[in-house]
């Protein structure tokens, strides 16, 4: 399996217990979709992917799970995996409900705002404290848009367009066009 055939779904955060289990931070739509996964692909930095057999995946929190991997059977082997990136084959991803999308699918899409028109392109996504953040390249500036149903309306995958409804003044914050008070 090659990295270009997979999507990054998280990383190993820490060792768990003494028998080789690890705690993984997973950035996935629904953790329960991954409970029956038999194989994950692991890689540290620029190393090639290596298939690891998942004996058990137990969700523990919203974005965390305990992984029991067949190839890891001691605390030392689990500790050696800390920081390792987890990958999953794109071809095996669960179909999302209509109007939902995987972030990797829309990188490079045009952004069209219902009031402001064309805004640029989707550059990336980041984890925010309350929700995910879409990063837009707008006139040479990075604009951060919370990924909420109020702001990100629809992904038109066929035409490669993300439709938004940005709140008044958001772009001004990034463009330095804040209103000046003459006090």
Question: Strands, helices and their partners?
Answer:
Elements: E1 6-16, E2 21-26, E3 39-43, E4 50-61, E5 64-69, H1 75-80, E6 85-89, H2 103-106, E7 110-113, E8 117-127, E9 132-138, E10 141-146, E11 152-156, E12 161-164, H3 170-175
Parallel strand pairs: 7-12
Antiparallel strand pairs: 1-2, 1-6, 2-5, 3-4, 3-6, 4-5, 7-8, 8-9, 9-10, 11-12
As a percent range, the share of strand residues is 35-45%
Work out the helix count. 3
Cα shape: elongated
Helix/strand structural class: mainly beta
What's the mean pLDDT score?
90
In short:
This protein has 183 residues and is mainly beta. 9% of the residues lie in helices and 45% in strands. The longest helix has 6 residues, at 75-80.
């Amino acid at each position: 399996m090659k990295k270009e055939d997979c999507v990054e779904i998280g990383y190993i955060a820490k060792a768990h217990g003494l028998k080789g289990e690890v705690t993984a931070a997973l950035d996935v739509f629904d953790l329960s979709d991954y409970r029956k996964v038999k194989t994950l692909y692991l890689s540290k930095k620029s190393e090639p992917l290596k298939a690891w057999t998942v004996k058990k995946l137990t969700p523990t929190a919203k974005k965390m799970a305990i992984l029991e991997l067949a190839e890891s059977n001691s605390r030392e082997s689990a500790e050696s995996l800390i920081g390792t990136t987890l990958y999953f084959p794109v071809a095996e991803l669960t179909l999302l409900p209509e109007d939902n999308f995987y972030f990797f699918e829309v990188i490079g899409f045009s952004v069209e705002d219902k009031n402001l028109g064309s805004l640029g392109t989707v550059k990336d996504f980041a984890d925010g404290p309350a929700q995910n953040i879409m990063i837009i390249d707008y006139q040479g500036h990075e604009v951060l848009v919370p990924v909420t149903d109020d702001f990100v309306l629809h992904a038109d995958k066929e035409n490669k367009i993300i439709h938004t409804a940005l709140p008044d003044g958001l772009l001004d914050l990034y463009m330095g066009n804040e209103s000046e008070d003459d006090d």
